[in-house]
Amino acid sequence: MSWFRRGASRPAWTWPYTPDDRDRVVPLPEVPQSDVGAPLPVVLASERTLLLVYMIQETLPAWEGADVAGVESGDLPIAVVQFHRPYAHMLGWPNDEAFAGHPLAARGLHPYGAFVVEDSSWIRALERMNSVHPLHDPARFRPRTHYVLSFHDSTFECVAEGFSFTVRNGSLRETAAEALNHLA
């Protein structure tokens, strides 16, 4: 069957996984808090490397009509999160105003946070998808972790075997350009 042909009709949008009663959302307080106004997350990815770059929340002096920080603004705190052995990722909706529509929102997932989803239905769905491989081994999926970072205008999710991060000052554009050099 050609992948151009439509099969049974499906809803206009479906999530890549369907949470069940096993999914548990746990906060990751050690991950730098994103700027609640405009973190402007950037994803840099290859088959072996996954980097997430975003502006960090900082206490600013009272706003006096100054411009909002953008990708060119310098000397701002920027987080670079590297996900180790990435398997899948997505960046997109929901934003903070529609976050109640996220399938894990009722489990404690909320805007402006970082989380791990324990016993993730997404990882279980990936394992089922891979089960058709002749050398499939379910044990290979045990070290994988489902991460969620929720921002002002978007939500980032990935499956990886761990993460590390650095924080630096600079512009988002310069930091992302430097991070690009670390893609494998």
Could you characterize what this model shows?
This protein is mainly beta and 184 residues long. It is 10% helix and 30% strand. It contains two helices and nine strands. Strands 1-6-7-8-5 form a five-stranded antiparallel β-sheet, with no helix packed on it. Strands 2-3-4-9 form a four-stranded antiparallel β-sheet, with helices on one face. Residues 1-7 and 60-68 have low confidence and may be disordered.
List the helices and strands and how they pair.
Elements: E1 24-27, E2 42-45, E3 50-55, E4 76-84, E5 88-92, E6 113-118, H1 121-130, E7 145-150, E8 155-160, E9 162-170, H2 172-180
Antiparallel strand pairs: 1-6, 2-3, 3-4, 4-9, 5-8, 6-7, 7-8
Overall spatial form: globular
Kindly, what is the distance between the CA atoms of the first and last residues, rounded to a whole number of angstroms? 35 Å
- Radius of gyration from the CA trace? 18 Å
* Largest β-sheet summary: 5 strands, antiparallel
Q: Give the rounded overall mean pLDDT.
A: 87
- Estimate the helix proportion, in percent: 10-25%
Low-confidence stretches: 1-7, 60-68
**Overall number of strands:** 9
Strand order of the largest sheet: 1-6-7-8-5
Determine the structural class based on helices, strands and strand pairing: mainly beta
Taken in chain order, the helices and strands follow as EEEEEEHEEEH
